[in-house]
Design goal:
The chain is of the alpha/beta class. The chain is built from 17 helices and 15 strands. It folds into two domains: 322 residues, Amidase signature (AS) enzymes; 171 residues, no CATH class.
Length: 571
């Protein structure tokens, strides 16, 4: 029996006045979760048009129908219905816990929960229940949310296998591949016919279940693109917050320098609701970075949403590399740029911004992208990854991620105490090697290897120098410089193209669903395979702690466009 369908047995056995009609038959739902926003659900709950139990039941039924096709979840909460009934009982007595009371939310499976397994998608952690819960989970529960499932993800947030055999996005050894609901078919090309999807699902946080209406929204995490990319690919609104706005305590890390959790939803309003619920009212003593930004009054970001916010707003267009191909100094070939179809989508978005009264500064190029100094050019400075950038061959890349994984992953393992399935990164690598035949490290573990060879003490000076260069090129001589010089409210990026840039200094980005473009990979699909279009969003990026302004701009753009389309799945 599919383990994910177990909650349906509970549903069939459970008795509830909320779900039973005459002659013992379930009443037909008078509210549907399909494409319903959290705001819609809150209103329906307040007006007694639906119960939390009914919401959970509808979502469990959809999971039963679509999970085998989409692989959206690694675990479904077997107690979700009981928790929903408890929320309904409290509501009937006049108690509402918070803005997410009775709303089913899913978590990326690197976010620790004591009642559900937290695996990171790694076989070594299969079935592991941590000894403590993530701060953000406590905040969600305090706000009334029901954790309905743990989502699929790229194993250990895509820091397992780099070159020579990079792990495909949204693959993990426990659940396999996730599939995009906008085209949930396998890749038919001979060279990539390993079961991966024909339409990419994006980064390591799965947006699949939210897009397919298997839960109201989900919480992802990002080190460099893993909230923005899956949201782009699944036509979701999302917030990649300033690093530190949401506590990372209890989230399996790559590096504390760039890691952050964030909300993924169908609307900007829902993302704003979730951001307020995820953020702590006061700094978390377990995460010093939470002192970076102050929350708004009552942690209510929805008060900042303004449909007229674009009027007079100064929006910069970073043309070089992000829109148009650019050749860095010393290179023979240009890099980056958009396809003609993507460029048309962005031209449409810019025209809408103008019509809404925005002042478009075009170009507003990133200084470190267009500089002719090779030592100061961002395009010539990537994050070290894979076997080809191990010690001795890593002079031209940043060691921040591979160093951070050694430092912070070992600290996280130590925090688990005796319950930890492995005690160090070295032990995890050894465990993976001895369990290769059981399905571990199908694509190798070159990123874990290059991380484990780092010496946290001896390599600290190199790490600090590279971290300083990351911030200089992406922040000080990047986003900060162009925004200050042009007095910008935000930079507008195509899709998730600006994710890596904003990730290095830990700056926020909001993405809004907008267009569709052809799914046309470099190696074409075979004749007869008609690939369906891929979603393509629009992103607003700013400097540290600028989420309030970015939310207003993103909301105004969303209200002026309303381009999100449901995936072609039967309801």
């Amino acid at each position: 029996m599919n383990r994910l369908l177990f909650p349906l047995l509970l549903a069939g056995a459970a008795s509830s006045a909320y779900a039973q009609g005459g002659a013992g038959k379930p009443e037909p739902p008078h509210f549907t979760v399909v494409e319903a926003s959290i705001s819609d659900m809150r209103t329906a709950l307040e007006q007694h048009r639906v119960t939390s139990r009914e919401l959970v039941m509808q979502y469990l039924m959809r999971i039963a129908v679509y999970e085998d096709k989409l692989h959206a979840a690694l675990t479904v909460n077997p107690n979700a219905l009981r928790e929903a009934e408890a929320r309904d009982h409290e509501r009937a007595q006049g108690r509402v816990r918070g803005p997410l009371d009775g709303i089913p939310i899913a978590l990326k499976d690197n976010i620790m929960t004591t009642d559900l397994a937290t695996t990171g998608g790694a076989l070594a952690f299969d079935g592991f229940k941590p000894p403590y819960e993530a701060t953000l989970v406590k905040n969600l529960r305090d706000a009334g949310a029901i954790i309905i499932a743990k989502t699929g993800m790229t194993e250990l947030a895509n820091w397992v296998a780099g070159a020579p055999m990079p792990m495909p996005a949204n693959y993990n050894a426990i659940g396999g591949f996730g599939f995009n609901p906008y085209d949930p078919r396998r890749d038919p090309r001979e060279g990539t016919a390993d079961g991966r999807p024909a339409l990419q699902t994006g980064g390591s946080s799965s947006g699949v279940g939210t897009a397919a209406n298997l839960w109201a929204a989900n919480i992802g995490s990002e080190t460099s693109g893993s909230i923005l990319s899956p949201s782009n690919q699944n036509m979701l609104a999302a917030i990649k917050p300033t690093v530190g706005r949401i506590s990372r305590y209890g989230v399996i890390p790559i590096t504390a320098d760039q890691d952050t959790a964030g909300p993924m939803a169908k609307t900007v309003t829902d993302a704003a609701l979730l951001l307020g619920a995820l953020e702590s009212a006061t700094p978390d003593p377990n995460d010093p970075a939470t002192r970076t930004c102050a929350p708004p009054a009552q942690k209510d970001y929805t008060r900042l949403l303004d449909a007229g916010a674009l009027k007079g707003a100064r929006i910069g267009i970073p043309r070089a590399f992000f829109y148009d191909r650019a050749t860095p100094p010393g290179a023979k070939e240009p890099r980056g740029g958009l396809s003609p179809e993507q460029a048309k989508v962005m031209a449409d978005a810019i025209e809408i911004l103008k019509r809404q009264g925005a002042v478009i500064v075009d170009p507003a190029d990133i200084p470190s992208v267009i500089t002719t100094d090779p030592a100061a050019n961002l395009l010539l400075w990537n994050s070290c990854s894979g076997a080809g950038e191990a010690k001795g061959t890593d002079a031209a890349c940043s060691v921040v991620l591979k160093y951070g994984m050694k430092r912070d992953f070992n600290l996280w393992l130590a925090s688990l105490g005796p319950s930890a399935p492995v005690k160090t990164l070295t032990e995890l690598r050894q465990w993976n090697i001895t369990h290769t035949k059981g399905g571990a490290i199908k694509y190798g573990q070159s990123n874990l290897d290059v991380s484990d060879e780092m010496d946290v003490e001896a390599d600290r000076a190199r790490y600090q120098a590279d971290r300083a260069k990351d911030i200089q090129l992406a922040g000080t001589h990047g986003i900060d410089e162009v925004m200050k010089a042009n007095q910008l409210d935000a930079l507008l990026f195509p899709g998730a193209n600006g994710a890596a840039l904003a990730a290095k200094p830990g700056y926020p980005t909001l993405i809004v669903p907008f267009g569709m473009v052809p799914n046309r990979p470099t190696e074409p699909f075979p004749d007869g395979f008609n690939a369906r279009p891929a979603p393509f969003g629009v992103s607003f990026t700013g400097m540290a702690c600028s989420e309030p302004r970015l939310l207003a701009l993103a909301y105004a753009f969303e209200q002026a466009t309303k381009r999100r389309m449901a995936p072609p799945l039967a309801p």
